[in-house]
Write a structure and sequence with these properties.
Elements (H helix, E strand, L loop, with lengths): L1 H10 L9 E4 L14 H10 L15 E5 L7 E4 L7 E3 L3 E4 L6 E4 L7 E3 L3 E5 L2 E3 L5 E3 L2 E5 L2 E3 L2 E4 L3 E3 L2 E5 L2 E3 L2 E4 L3 E3 L4 E5 L2 E3 L2 E5 L3 E4 L2 E5 L2 E3 L2 E2 L13 E4 L12 E5 L2 E3 L2 E2 L6 E2 L7 E4 L2 E3 L6 E2 L3 E2 L4 E3 L15 E5 L7 E4 L11 H5 L49 H11 L21 H13 L12
Parallel strand pairs: 1-2, 2-5, 3-6, 4-7, 5-8, 6-9, 7-10, 8-11, 9-12, 10-14, 11-15, 12-16, 13-17, 14-18, 15-19, 16-20, 17-21, 18-22, 19-23, 20-24, 21-25, 22-26, 23-27, 24-28, 25-29, 26-30, 27-31, 28-32, 30-33, 31-34, 32-35
Antiparallel strand pairs: 36-37
Helix pairs in contact: 1-5, 4-5
Length: 469
């Protein structure tokens, strides 16, 4: 039966993408020499659809996958030794690391780590650190379970996005820039950030956590803590320790008014020497909508530039975010490991954020019924969800259905095809972690069959389709 299922999926039109899997076997930054396969050579192989150096692509080159050999001694660091040469990606590729705590790519405080000039690129389970800029993105980038730390550049210390960016379950810490310490989102289709934490990032001008101009930024289930911006260095616009949403800037960049939508997020302890410490829409009042979120304890005022109150928000102290938002002490804990892939800020007992969120907003995209940790909303014993990124008294992660890659509570044909691609080595495990029921780093025929059962009969009707059952 297992082979029949695989055959049926194989024969579906457009079902399986042909691609090569390239395995990195050394942490040395080799470039066309030596018997091993370096990350730089693996990327060159994917870009050129041909083996480079010691790399050998398994399968036909196309939208390729780069993985790391199990023989590497972990944790490890790949130091980039050419100060003038970033790891340049110009084709569709997925790079899946062994875990952000296990493998770091280090720019030696000089080299831009990644430069994405084109293609659909997926990076997961890596740390990108100490770069002369972490990532310069001009393609379509999906970043999952990554840490960007200690990177520095004039624009976008962690990421400079000029195209399309999706960030999920990632950490931005200690990055710095003139504008956009963590991320600078300056053009293109924009950026969507969910389930991520920005802490200790800094901007000499605007946007300690994120700087946005002339495009769309959506932020959900995310935490901003201890980010700073000096503000007003090169132009008469805002600081925005957490987020700065701007209209135009002279000397460094140019563009029209950006649009920011913040949902179920927590801002605490951010600062700006001028402008607002939490979120600032700038002197032009660029549209900045906030819903189900907490903005508190900023150095200076919490908000500036005019915030659009989407309802169910809290601010403290003061009313800089608008008179319609209650000013109440949200009773927040410190940034800490409260479970889940990133650190979060818990709401403490008796917080006015508890049972005060909009249940419809918490249930629908982009929140999808979970908090930043991936824990269920609403908390046990309550009718409504909590305001902010953290759900109080949650019972934990929801039951996960084998093969439900997107966490929608169902398994689709596309998700089955994704599992088959992963099983055949032409897809990345980051594309469907719920497909790996026993968490052994691979997808088996048995797991595919269970996902097929869930697709036909629904998730978890008898427990047979549930992860861990």
């Amino acid at each position: 039966m297992g082979l029949a299922v695989l055959a049926a999926l194989w024969l579906m039109p457009g079902g399986l993408a042909l691609a090569a899997t390239i395995t990195v076997t050394t942490v040395a930054d080799e470039n066309g020499s030596g018997p091993n396969c370096s990350l730089r050579e693996a990327i060159a192989s994917a870009n050129g659809d041909a083996d480079v150096g010691g790399c050998v692509g398994v399968g036909a080159y196309g939208a390729d996958t780069i993985v790391f050999a199990s023989t590497l001694s972990l944790p490890a660091t790949i130091p980039l030794t050419d100060p003038a040469s970033a790891l340049t990606i110009s084709s569709d590729v997925t790079i899946t690391g062994p875990g952000a705590t296990q493998l770091a790519i280090d720019g030696n405080h000089t080299t831009q780590v990644f430069s994405i000039t084109a293609g659909q690129v997926m990076l997961s389970d890596l740390t990108i650190q100490h770069g002369g800029g972490g990532i310069d993105n001009n393609g379509t980038l999906t970043l999952t379970n990554c840490t960007l730390s200690g990177n520095s550049a004039p624009i976008g210390g962690g990421i400079r996005n000029s195209a399309t960016l999706t960030v999920t379950d990632s950490i931005f810490s200690g990055n710095s820039a003139d504008i956009g310490g963590g991320i600078s989102n300056t053009s293109g289709e924009g950026a969507a950030v969910t389930g991520s934490t920005f802490s200790g990032n800094s901007a000499a001008d605007s946007g300690g956590g994120i700087f946005n101009i002339d495009t769309i930024l959506t932020v959900s289930n995310s935490t901003f803590s201890g980010n700073t911006a000096a503000g007003f260095v090169s132009r008469p616009v805002a600081g925005g320790g957490g987020i700065a949403n701007q209209f135009a800037c002279s000397g460094i960049c140019s563009g029209g008014c950006g649009s920011v939508i913040v949902t179920n997020s927590t801002f605490s302890g951010n600062s700006a020497d001028a402008g607002a410490g939490g979120i600032d829409g700038g002197s032009y009042g660029c549209p900045t909508s906030v819903t189900n979120s907490i903005i508190a304890s900023s150095s200076g005022v919490n908000c500036g530039g005019g915030i659009i109150d989407g309802g169910h928000n809290l601010q403290f102290p003061g009313t800089s975010c608008g008179a319609t938002i209650p000013s109440l002490d949200p009773l927040l804990g410190p940034l800490a490991n409260n479970g889940g892939p990133t650190h979060t800020i818990a709401v403490l007992p008796n917080s006015p954020a508890i049972n005060a969120g909009d249940p419809e907003g918490c249930a629908n995209p982009p929140v999808n019924g979970v908090d930043q940790r991936g824990y269920m909303r609403t908390g046990t014993g309550y009718t409504n969800c909590s305001i902010g990124a953290y759900e109080y008294n949650s019972s934990g992660p929801p039951p996960s259905c084998v093969g439900d890659c997107g966490g929608e509570g169902q398994v689709t044909i596309d998700e089955l095809l994704t599992m088959v691609n992963i099983a055949l080595g032409t897809g990345s495990m980051a594309e469907c972690k719920p497909g790996d029921d026993n968490d052994d780093g691979q997808i088996t025929i048995d797991e595919i069959l269970r996902a097929v059962n869930a697709a036909l009969n629904g998730c978890c009707l008898d427990g047979s389709g549930c992860v861990g059952k």
